[in-house]
Design brief:
heterotrimer, A alpha/beta (about 250), B mainly alpha (about 350), C mainly alpha (about 290), A: alpha/beta, Rossmann fold, about 25% strand, C: about 290 residues, mainly alpha, ABC transporter involved in vitamin B12 uptake, BtuC, two-stranded antiparallel ribbon
Chain lengths: ~250, ~350, ~290
């Protein structure tokens, strides 16, 4: 069966600095795959290479068997790849309703409709409403994003990524920065993601990793250090060693 | 559906969406007033025409500045190009004004389309310089190609026949004003529909967070090219209106101060809600009239001072009057957008 | 033809002195200062006033122009510019355009709108032939003086403590502050230095470039070309850009005068198409 997401000998150099060093990953469909590693290991660089924000120095990225190495970021979204950002990347004064309608509308190809007002786009609006319901954002659907509490913003961040109906979803530290009281909402949303969506998760929170993931890849100094099931990795002493000093 | 039960998510969504597209009270009042001026202020037709033209020009700038986030220091390139195009068209081909408008819009639009790639790349500074450079380039050409443009003397001999063969331009400028106002109304209506559409939403998204927008599948390049072209068409039509209502093209239409003026007009009125250009044009024209009575030669000084004051007081604080517009959605939005505008 | 080259080099070096400060401030404060030309203009008018009204020798006017405009720059930086470092580029553009408008109108009011003339000291007038090249005394003077200034600037940046603090602050302001570098003092001094250089350039330029109230807008494009094409991460970038621009402009005006400034605008646009981030930008540079 073709891997949902795959890299082959992916390399990224910044001058003399090797940010990504010959990384070959294969993630199967429907997986819950965690990417862990100490700070500076190159996790975010890898995600940027996967999504097209960075072009690799060499190597390939394949989505569902298709070579997307030379596709720009926005085209990869059309092929079913989606991501959340570690620091919320939202649309300033847009309301959650507008943000989600934007995402759904773009998916449906409505982005070029310049005459029909948003309010007449019933299908998109209804789907947006249901998505907002799922993400518990209904009471705040009309509030500009910048005025929302951080936890709600984080939920919106994930909702946007889901709205594109991705085949592969990259979550970059979904619970990062979320205050204690709001964490459980975010975490339960992550756990309830549909099983046919392949999820790649970058996380520092080991509880989340161990409860959510089925496979783990460990990145260190730009290279793939270790890979295996949750069982294998949690018992690996070398992995523990590179984490000495890291808090879970 | 239960009467008395809390609204469903779908219903709430519908309610919000209907609100965004609704015609506000002040919008309707504004247009009614503009039409009323035809009858209430018959002696001010000429200056009202000027204001309408400036408003259209500023609205065109709002499309790229307020909605796509492009800071242009050379927007008058399109205005001037439209002005000259309309002048030459009327003098040498067809002197019916509406056809002239369409021709001018086409010429400016094409030019906008072909120069749009200049604003797609590079930093803010690069964009400033390329837009400035293009406008200055056109100004140089207009100055040198006297055989075509009349050079420093401007293009004269522009005769304008009745609009659509029916409505003649009268001496008092009344028909001129009605003409300009109608064009402004129609084009603003079209722009209004564009910004409230899915396309408009994607533009606003690109301005606020380009990275996020691409991760939702939006290709910023193509969208920006489209809105830049539309903006050029609008600016060109504004320039054509000026030519047609004054029967003359002054080389001043490509001068740098026009680019700076229209920027100021838009900033005064408020960027990014489409009507800023109109409000700004009114305030700016009134101010300019008043100032040139006081200091006829040095009004540039006061304009400069006003610009500096606006920056220091903060466009956010100045835009606060918009929070008092009816509708809570309006208030919350305006508050958040005011904070956003200064970013 | 070599004479054209020589004249172009003189012109280019003058442009570098004029625009170098802008490159420094843009790189350091990320501030789009379209009013830079106003400082140059001020230096020119200081020279004109000192020479024509007070009969002071041209040679003394040069340091005077530098000091006066440097002071003006420092004052404006502390009172106005300082508050605007974090604002959007649009606001910076609006502010600096406002400043330019005010300065143009003020100069027009006090000094009138006509071209200003000064009489260069006899030593600097005239020309001589050297290997078939027509060497104007004044242009030679400019080349030598600007070369000395450039070298001094480069040495100051690379060999002095201030220079390394400046470079650190340009590279990463936050880290520099964390290292205890007083970034606001650096900003103020650099701005003063940049404005002073502009003023000096303006003084030198009265005879070569002309001087009227429209100076800041007329030459804005040249300064901005030097900065955008030359980039802000070094001295060499703007230096080379200024030289190229000077030579291109002089050659253009000589060989194809009917095109006027057309060439300059066209060249700039082409450069920015090819290299949107400047000829010498670092990867990911501003």
């Amino acid at each position: 069966m073709t891997a949902a997401l795959e890299t082959r000998n992916l390399v990224k150099r910044f001058g003399a600095f090797m940010a990504t060093n010959d990384v070959s990953l294969s993630i199967r469909q429907g997986a819950r795959h965690a990417l862990i590693g100490p700070n500076g290991a190159g996790k975010t660089t890898l995600i940027n290479l996967l999504t097209g924000a960075l072009t690799p120095s060499s190597g390939q990225v394949l989505l569902g068997g298709e070579d997307i190495t030379n596709l720009p970021a926005h085209a990869r979204v059309g092929r079913g790849l989606s991501r959340t950002f570690q620091i919320n990347q939202l649309f300033g004064d847009f309301t959650p309703l507008e943000s989600v309608m934007l995402a759904i509308g773009e998916r449906e190809g409505h982005g070029w409709r310049a005459w029909k007002p948003l309010s007449r786009d019933r299908d998109v609006a209804d789907e947006a409403a249901h998505l907002l319901e799922r993400f518990r954002l209904v009471d705040t659907m009309g509030v500009p994003t910048t005025l929302l509490p951080y936890g709600k913003q984080r939920l919106l961040e994930i909702a946007l990524a889901i709205a594109t109906r991705p085949r592969v979803l990259l979550l970059d530290e979904p619970a990062a920065g979320v205050p204690e009281e709001e964490r459980h909402e975010v975490l339960s949303i992550v756990r309830d993601l549909p099983p046919d969506v392949t999820v790649v998760l970058i996380e520092h929170d080991m509880d989340l990793v161990f409860s959510f993931a089925d496979r783990i890849s460990v990145l260190a100094a730009g290279s793939l250090f270790a890979e295996g099931t949750v069982e294998e990795i949690s018992k690996d002493r070398q992995v523990k060693a590179i984490y000495l000093g890291e808090d879970a | 559906m239960n009467a008395g039960a809390p609204p469903s998510a779908v219903e709430t969504a519908q309610a919000f969406l209907r609100q965004t597209n609704r015609w506000r009270l002040w919008e309707i009042a504004l247009w009614l007033l503009a039409v009323a001026f035809i009858f209430i202020l018959p002696s001010k037709m000429l200056i009202l025409t000027e204001i309408a033209i400036l408003a259209l020009f500023a609205v065109s700038l709002d499309l790229i500045l307020g909605y796509a986030g492009i800071v242009s220091l050379g927007h008058t390139a399109f205005f001037g190009l439209g002005a000259y195009a309309a002048g030459l068209f009327a003098r040498d081909f067809v002197s019916e004004p509406v056809s002239g408008l369409l021709f001018a819009g086409l010429v400016s639009g094409l030019f906008g389309f072909f120069t749009s790639f200049l604003v797609l790349r590079g930093s803010d500074l690069t964009r400033l310089m390329t837009t400035y450079g293009v406008a200055m380039l056109l100004a140089e050409i207009a100055n040198q190609a006297a055989w075509l443009t009349g050079g420093a003397d401007g293009l004269s001999g522009v005769t304008v026949t009745p609009i659509l063969g029916m409505f003649e331009f009268d001496l008092w400028g009344r028909n001129g004003y009605i003409y300009a106002l109608l064009v402004l109304m129609v084009l603003t209506y079209i722009a209004r529909r564009i910004v409230h559409s899915s396309f408009g939403l994607s533009l606003k998204a690109i301005k606020r967070n380009q990275r996020r927008a691409s991760m939702l599948g939006i290709s910023p390049t193509r969208r920006i090219v489209v809105v830049y072209t539309i903006s050029a068409v609008y600016a060109g039509i504004a320039g054509a209106l000026l030519t047609q209502t004054t029967s003359f093209v002054s080389p001043d239409v490509l001068a740098f101060h026009r680019s700076a003026d229209v920027l100021l007009v838009l900033v005064i009125g408020g960027v990014g809600y489409l009507y800023g250009g109109i409000f700004g044009a009114v305030i700016f024209s009134v101010l300019r009239d008043w100032l040139s009575v006081i200091t006829p030669q040095y009004w540039m000084f006061w304009i400069g001072l006003i610009l500096i004051i606006i920056v220091f007081v903060g466009r956010e604080r100045l835009g606060r009057w918009r929070t008092y517009l009816p509708g809570t959605a309006g208030r919350l939005k305006a508050k958040a957008q005011a904070a956003e505008d200064t970013a | 033809m070599l004479t054209i080259l020589f004249d172009g080099i003189a012109y280019g070096m003058l442009l570098f002195v004029l625009a170098g400060g802008l490159s420094l401030t843009l790189g350091l404060m990320n501030f789009v200062n379209l009013a830079h030309g106003a400082f140059a203009m001020a230096g020119g008018y200081v020279t004109v006033i000192l020479m024509n009204r007070f009969g002071i020798s041209f040679y003394w006017c040069l340091p005077a122009a530098f000091i006066v405009t440097a002071l003006a720059g420092a004052i404006l930086e502390r009172t106005l510019y300082r508050h605007l470092y974090g604002v959007s580029h649009l606001d910076q553009v609006l502010f600096s355009i406002g400043l330019v408008f005010m300065s143009i109108a003020a100069v027009d009011y006090f000094m009138g709108g006509q071209q200003q003339m000064i009489n260069l000291p006899p030593l600097l007038r005239g020309r001589f032939e050297f290997l078939g090249v027509g060497v104007g005394h004044y242009r030679l003077f400019i080349i030598v003086l600007c070369a000395v200034l450039t070298v001094a600037l480069q040495l100051a940046l690379t060999r002095t403590r201030f220079g390394s603090q400046l470079r650190a602050a340009v590279d990463d302001g936050r880290v520099a502050r964390g290292l205890g570098i007083n970034v606001s003092v650096i900003f103020a001094l650099t701005f003063a230095l940049g404005s002073g250089l502009a003023g000096l350039g303006g003084a030198l330029g009265v005879d070569l470039l002309g001087l009227d109230p429209n100076f800041p807008l007329k030459f804005l494009i040249y300064f901005m070309i030097v900065v955008t094409v030359g980039g802000t991460s070094s001295i060499t970038g703007p230096f080379i850009a200024a030289l190229l621009l000077g030579i291109a402009d002089v050659a253009g005006k000589y060989y194809v005068p009917q095109l006027g400034s057309f060439i300059i605008y066209a060249v700039m646009i082409v450069m920015l198409i090819l290299r949107p981030y400047g000829l010498f930008a670092r990867e990911g540079g501003r």
